[in-house]
Amino acid sequence: MSEINQIRIVFMGTPNFAVPSLKSLAEAGGNVVAVVTQPDRPRGRKRELTPSPVKQEAVELEIPVLQPERLRAPESLAKVLAFEPDLIVTAAYGQILPKSLLDVPRLGCINVHASLLPKYRGGAPIHHALIAGEKETGITIMYMVEALDAGDILSQSSIPIEESDDVGTLHNKLSVLGAELLLETIPDLLKGEIVARPQNTDEVTYSPNIRREDEEIHWQKSARQLTNQVRGLHPWPVAFTFWEGKPLKIWRAHELDEPVTQLPGTILRAGGDGIVVATGDGALVITELQPAGKKAMTAEQLLRGRPMKPGTRLGDC
């Protein structure tokens, strides 16, 4: 892949999702002249300043790192432009690139996005694809423009969403797929063998960042919808309901196809196999959960110390 040795690449990314793309570029001999990532942030109980996963990888690769608080600030732009990039590659960077930067690289700015655009533009495509019950998703590599994830598509690759998938497993699959597709796309881009295609605006959907209200379980929904919600929020930020007036996080659950006549949110039975709760259509079996002030545990572990009586209702009711 000698072609990518000949161009100056600035890579922009922040979370774990972007690490395989950066690492693959470097291992393939790409001339990554700088990495731009978010500033170190306080993390953990001690709130210690912690570098982003992309910064940690860049340090390992001995690549210069820039961490502007505001990329749009003139002094921040000047530092990036000083590296004279031929191509800018972004993957979950976390800031919008201004037009004054987008227009500079002669080969443009391209983005690794975790959906099959034009579906799921925005910051949480993996979560929303699962919550919506999609059967497949994938990676899109597209040109960046000023509008959100609206640039012309260079390449795409799809994978099935398995019933066992959650945000964690799908995130890991897509991060690897993104790195692979990036390495396939850049050489073809350099050879002029890609004809970028506009997105079909009639098919656009959005995936905004998850809000607190998106995490709450509404038991009037069907068991299938709630199963998708739970796995679409696992392992972060995690779905929740209320039990005895306090938040109860639901880490793992699955639907049970049985007729239900009780009010949604009613506990039907509780045992070693899980806590079975009535929904608007069918029942949800909770197998792993986290009471307020406690660690996550199995339903069996919880029930040893705190019984959940049939007829009790969960939720804000």
Describe this structure in words.
Keywords: Protein biosynthesis, Transferase. The mean pLDDT is 96. With 317 residues, the protein is α/β, with parallel strands linked by helices. The protein starts with 8 loop residues before the first strand and ends in a 12-residue tail after the last helix. Strand 12 and strand 13 form a beta hairpin. The protein folds into two domains: 202 residues, Formyl transferase, N-terminal domain (Rossmann fold, 3-Layer(aba) Sandwich); 93 residues, Methionyl-tRNA Fmet Formyltransferase, Chain A, domain 2, CATH 3.10.25. It is 25% helix and 26% strand. The protein has a seven-stranded mixed β-sheet.
Topology:
Elements: E1 9-13, H1 19-27, E2 32-36, E3 41-43, E4 48-50, H2 53-60, E5 65-66, H3 74-81, E6 87-91, H4 99-102, E7 109-113, H5 125-131, E8 136-143, E9 153-160, H6 167-190, H7 212-215, H8 223-231, E10 239-243, E11 246-256, E12 267-271, E13 274-278, E14 283-291, E15 297-298, H9 299-305
Parallel strand pairs: 1-2, 1-6, 2-5, 6-7
Antiparallel strand pairs: 3-4, 7-8, 8-9, 10-11, 11-14, 12-13, 13-14, 14-15
Keywords:
single chain; 317 residues; Rossmann fold; Methionyl-tRNA Fmet Formyltransferase, Chain A, domain 2; 9 helices; 15 strands
What count of structural domains?
2
Main sheet characteristics: 7 strands, mixed
List low-confidence stretches.
Answer: none
**Helix-strand pattern:** EHEEEHEHEHEHEEHHHEEEEEEH
Catalytic activity: L-methionyl-tRNA(fMet) + (6R)-10-formyltetrahydrofolate = N-formyl-L-methionyl-tRNA(fMet) + (6S)-5,6,7,8-tetrahydrofolate + H(+)
Protein name: Methionyl-tRNA formyltransferase
Keywords: Protein biosynthesis, Transferase
Family: Belongs to the Fmt family.
